[in-house]
Amino acid sequence: MNKIELICVGDLKFKGLKEVEQKYVGKINAFAKFAIRSLKDVKSRDEAVKKKKEGQMMLELLDERDFVIALDEHGKKMDSLQFARFLSNKISCHPHRIVFLVGGHAGLSDLLDLRIDFKLSFSQMTFAHDIFRILFLEQLYRAFTIIKRIKYHR
Length: 154
Known about the structure:
This protein is an alpha/beta fold.
């Protein structure tokens, strides 16, 4: 079974969203071994220091064999079908873990640039981190239902 991980900075702050997150994690685990790893939010008024420390923490969690996808506003935009095809291709061609990265409020560190294999954008809009995590999980679940040809609401 494929391993997919979401590495992000900070925990969900709203109880209701934690329940939704767990619902989607359970659904995704029917298709792949999926986990979310939340890193401690670095407390610093200096955004450069914050980004650097968060980037170092992320790098420590990455294996050289991982396929790393940064969820970044400057990445490639895809619709749900394109994302499902992309994910299906990565799962079939990449035997190791697929890791998605979500940076903290200051964004992803430049330290990660050499380690990122692909940048994916969901929108040019800015989302609250809590909301984006749920949005990502829904799209990941939707991608698996498309791949497996399981009916899912539109």
